[in-house]
Amino acid sequence: MKQQKLLINGERLKNELERFANFGRTENNGVTRLSLSEEDRLARDYFCSCCEELGMSIKIDDMGCIYATLEGVENKNPIVIGSHLDTVKKGGRFDGVLGVVAGLEVVRVLVENNIQTQTPITIVNFTNEEGARFEPSMMASGVLSGKFKKSEMLKKMDSGGITFEQALNQSGYAGDRDNRLTDASAFLELHIEQGPILEKESTSIGIVECVLGMVCYEIEITGESDHAGTTPMDMRKDALFTANNLITEIRKRLSGLDSELVYTIGRVSVLPNIHTVIPNQVNFSLEARHKNPDTIRLVEEIIQGLPQSEMKEGCEVKTTKLWDRETVWFNEEIYHLLQQSAESLGYSYKRMVSGAGHDAQFIASFIPSAMVFVPSMNGKSHCEEEFTHWRDCEKGVNVLLEAVLTMLGNERQV
What we know:
By secondary structure, this protein is of the alpha/beta class. It has 2 domains: 10-211 and 327-408, Aminopeptidase, CATH 3.40.630; 214-325, Alpha-Beta Plaits, CATH 3.30.70. 32% of the residues lie in helices and 21% in strands. The protein has helices spanning 10-21, 38-53, 97-112, 139-144, 150-154, 164-171, 197-200, 239-255, 293-304, 332-344, 359-363, 390-408, and strands at residues 57-60, 66-70, 79-84, 121-126, 186-192, 205-211, 213-222, 262-264, 268-271, 281-290, 316-325, 328-329, 349-354, 369-374. The strands form 2 sheets. Strands 1, 2, 3, 4, 5, 6, 12, 13 and 14 form a 9-stranded mixed β-sheet that branches. Helix 10 packs across helix 12. The N and C termini lie close together (9 Å).
C-alpha cells in the first residue's frame, strides 16, 4: 500500500479561522479583539471548549496564558505550538490567531487518525502580544522569558485607566505562576508574513531564521523662533530646514550600507508649529533593523555623528538612544526540520528574516524555537484588508504537521 502523507483539513481550518473572526469582527471584515476585552474572553472560552472536545487538559498561568495539552504516553517535555488571539484595533483575521488555530488543526489530525504520541503536544495562547491595549507588546512572553518584570506589567493601564491586573482578574483568566511554560522540546509559531516578499516572489512558505536586531534613536534639533516674514533667510536658525538636511543626509548614508537594512523616521514633532513662526525645535525618531550587529553599529555611528554635521545651519543637534535589541536567531535544527518538511510536501519556500517582533523571539531564549511565514496579500497586516489565501494557510499548517510528525517519529500509512 502506497504511503501517503497526513494532511490537514483545509476547509475545517478555514471555517475555524472564520469562527474566531466572529469574536470582534468589524463592519469591513476585520477584527478588533483587544487583549482581555470581552471579545478576547469569548475567543478564549471558545478556544478552551475546542481543546476540551479533543480531550486536552487546560492550564492557565499568572499572565493569563492558556496551555492546552494532549498528553503523551511518556512524561516528556512537550512540543508546543501557538501564538496569540488578541488583535490591534481594526486588525485582520489572520495575525496571531492562525498560529493558535494551526495547533488546533494539528491536534485534530492526530486525534482523528488515532495517533497516540509519546510526547505531549501543547497549544499556547500568549496574552497581550499586540500591546494594543496594554503596552508593551509581547507582554506575557516577555515576562515568561524574564525580559519584563511582572510587577511592572500588572500596573500598565489602558486608555480608560484600567490596569492589566484588573483586566486579567475581570476576564477570569488569572491563573497560577506554577503553570507557566518553562520547558519544552520545541516551540513552533506559524504566522502571516505581514510583508510583501513571499507574494511578490510567488513563494508559499517562509522559513524564518531570525528576528532582526534593531536600534531606535531620537534626534532633537534646536534653533531659534523668529517672525516668518521679517527675518532674512541668511539670518535664520530654522530647526525644520536643518531636520530636512539631516534626514536627506541620513537616507543617503544609510542607503549605502546594505540593501537589507531597513530604517524608518516614523515620528516627527515641530515647535511651535505655527505657520507665521520659524520652527525653533524639531524632534524625530529614527529606527533601523538588520540581522548583522556590525551593520547596526555602523548605523549608530552615523546617527551619533549628526551633531558634527556640516548641514546644521547654526542649529544644535542632540541624539538620544531610546532602546535596542539584538538579533534573535532561531534553533538551527528545527529550522532545517521545517525546511525539510516544506521540501517533502513539494511547497516552494525561502529563507527569511522577521522584521516584526513575535512571541517566538522571547520564547527562543529558553526553548528551542522556530517560525514559519505564509504570504500576506499585498503585504497588508494590522488592518482590515489583511488577507492570506486559504490555500496558503493550509500549506503553512501542513508544514507544522509534517514537522511535528517527524519529531514524534510517527510514520503512518493512510
